[in-house]
Amino acid sequence: AQSVTQLGSHVSVSEGALVLLRCNYSSSVPPYLFWYVQYPNQGLQLLLKYTTGATLVKGINGFEAEFKKSETSFHLTKPSAHMSDAAEYFCAVSGPPAAGNKLTFGGGTRVLVKP
Amino acid sequence: DADVTQTPRNRITKTGKRIMLECSQTKGHDRMYWYRQDPGLGLRLIYYSFDVKDINKGEISDGYSVSRQAQAKFSLSLESAIPNQTALYFCATPGSGVEQYFGPGTRLTVT
Questions:
Q1: How far off is chain A from B1, nearest CA to CA, in Å?
Q2: Residues on chain A bordering chain B, Cβ-to-Cβ distance under 8 angstroms
Q3: DSSP state of A99
Q4: Eight-state DSSP code of residue A40
């Protein structure tokens, strides 16, 4: 079984400030971890993913996330928020391909960027 | 990247009606997925298919059925729609790795 908890359903940041979105997961097998972004009235876009290897992964639009096995966390950060970062962000975990690569999502964090 | 299309993009229907949501992909992937999105709950898996003859229930399959008419097409049906099936519905296919790519979604409202 796998699950994802995103701390904070809403986050407000000032333009230029650090963006930090928290994600903790539970998985009985080595996880594959993902962050997706959803802009208003759009579908989901993949920001970044962790599979194996380097625990700090870089994604699109200046985002990065660090896999910490000991903390079962995969927090998403961006050093300097831009107005265009206003969106909803979803953390997700999947199991191995043989089990279907089924994604389990967190509840999402909506980011508001203040000018 | 997967090229996934969904029809219709928006649909309003009445309680008790049968409705079908369609998904097509152009990349020839064997696997296809249907998810539903509700506020505060993220996305939850309804059904997934490994190929035309292999269809599996997901976390919330009650009240839904699916059909994999061809490798490229995966349809989701609500046999008798009810208001709590009002949601955003997404179809997804695999990418080049373990990630999934999502279609644009169908916004369904059941009155």
A1: 10
A2: 4, 6, 9, 32, 34, 36, 42-44, 46, 49, 51, 90, 92, 94, 97, 100-108
A3: G
A4: T
- Residue B48 has which token pair? 């997934």
pLDDT tens by residue, chain A, 115 residues: 889 999 999 999 999 999 999 999 998 888 899 999 999 888 999 999 999 889 999 999 999 999 999 999 999 999 999 999 999 999 999 977 777 889 999 999 999 999 9
Compare all CA atoms of chain B with the CA of A88 and give the residue at the minimum distance: B42
Two tokens, residue A4: 């994802």
The residues of B whose Cβ lies within 8 A of any Cβ of A are 31, 33, 35, 40-45, 48, 50, 56, 58, 90, 92, 94-95, 97-105
Q: Please report where in the chains the tokens 């079984």 appear, as a residue.
A: A1
